[in-house]
């Protein structure tokens, strides 16, 4: 790939003698938002239908994620989502109900948990985009109050343990039973922990470890896992917005979860960093070890 996730080269579409698209060339880079502006009939919807595979160009070539040709494009479009013109949603139906409705319409059998996972994934994507837009706009106002970080972490792990369980990970959690008081916001902490668990479920290979350390009036929470899907070169970019490592694209991330988590931590006066710790010589593995460390200041409320 050359840095573009989507390209068109001299794409032309005619309907009989009517020219709908005239030798269109576009180049969309990874992580960018690309807008089409034009009058009615300019060909915006026609171009989107060509990209989505709902119609085919009369001339020219389309390339998506480095793939071109009918068969390769058919496969790569399975990673795409496309909504053209009027959205097909019903205001009185949930995301899961809407997905079930279209499964029935298209004759797709209900796969139970698979459908539920898709609904959960869609809900996660919407929440991440919403949180990110509010943070960027300075509209994310959180009320800071005395918060037991230890309790919020334990409860978040129990509520989201299924994410790690379904990834078949060995989970090790060394969590204190006593309160760890910080000045924070419980919903923001829950969002950070959820993003950490989702990141582990998406990238971890076999283990996921959580450890808490208190030192010099600071609390350190580490989330450590092994992975085959990342390289050391990926680590500096993991907090970049919309960054998704190529081998994990099919798992439905936005590249925003870690960006949101770090921003929320900073809003509460904390930090979130990533590193690749070296293992002792006796512990050898071919997988990369990745550690996310969350840090907050301990507050004395006496």
From TrEMBL:
What region holds the ABC transporter domain? 6-302
Catalytic activity reported: ATP + protein L-histidine = ADP + protein N-phospho-L-histidine
Q: Where is the Histidine kinase domain?
A: 114-274
Q: Which SUPFAM superfamilies match?
A: ATPase domain of HSP90 chaperone/DNA topoisomerase II/histidine kinase (SSF55874), P-loop containing nucleoside triphosphate hydrolases (SSF52540)
Q: What is its EC number?
A: 2.7.13.3
Superkingdom: Bacteria
Q: Which UniProt keywords apply?
A: ATP-binding, Kinase, Nucleotide-binding, Phosphoprotein, Transferase, Two-component regulatory system
Q: Name one GO molecular function term.
A: ATP hydrolysis activity
The protein's name in its UniProt record: histidine kinase
Classification lineage: Bacteria, Bacillati, Bacillota, Clostridia, Lachnospirales
């Amino acid at each position: 790939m050359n840095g573009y996730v989507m390209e068109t080269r001299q794409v032309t579409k005619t309907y009989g003698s009517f020219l709908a698209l005239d030798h269109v060339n576009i180049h969309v880079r990874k992580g960018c938002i690309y807008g089409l502006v034009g009058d009615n009939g300019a060909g915006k919807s026609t171009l989107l239908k060509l990209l989505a595979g709902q119609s085919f160009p009369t001339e020219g070539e389309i390339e998506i994620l480095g793939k071109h040709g009918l068969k390769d494009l058919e496969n790569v479009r399975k990673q795409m989502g496309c909504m053209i013109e009027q959205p097909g949603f019903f205001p009185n139906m949930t995301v899961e109900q809407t997905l079930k409705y279209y499964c029935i319409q298209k004759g797709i059998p209900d796969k139970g948990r698979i459908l539920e996972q898709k609904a959960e994934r869609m809900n996660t994507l919407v929440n991440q985009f919403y949180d990110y837009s509010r943070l960027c706009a300075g509209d994310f106002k959180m009320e800071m109050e005395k918060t037991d970080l230890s309790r919020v972490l334990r409860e978040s792990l129990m509520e989201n343990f299924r994410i790690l369980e379904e990834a078949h990970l060995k989970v090790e959690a060394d969590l204190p039973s006593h309160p760890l008081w910080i000045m924070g916001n419980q919903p923001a902490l829950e969002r950070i922990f959820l993003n950490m668990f989702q990141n582990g479920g998406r990238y971890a290979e076999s283990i996921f470890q959580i450890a808490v350390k208190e030192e010099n009036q600071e609390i350190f929470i580490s989330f450590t896992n092994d992975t085959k899907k990342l390289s050391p070169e990926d680590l500096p970019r993991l907090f970049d917005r919309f960054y998704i490592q190529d081998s994990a694209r099919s798992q439905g991330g936005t590249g925003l979860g870690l960006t949101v988590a770090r921003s929320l931590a900073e809003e509460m006066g904390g930090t979130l960093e990533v590193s690749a710790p070296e293992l002792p010589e006796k512990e050898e593995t071919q997988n990369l070890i990745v550690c996310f460390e969350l840090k907050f200041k301990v507050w004395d409320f006496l």
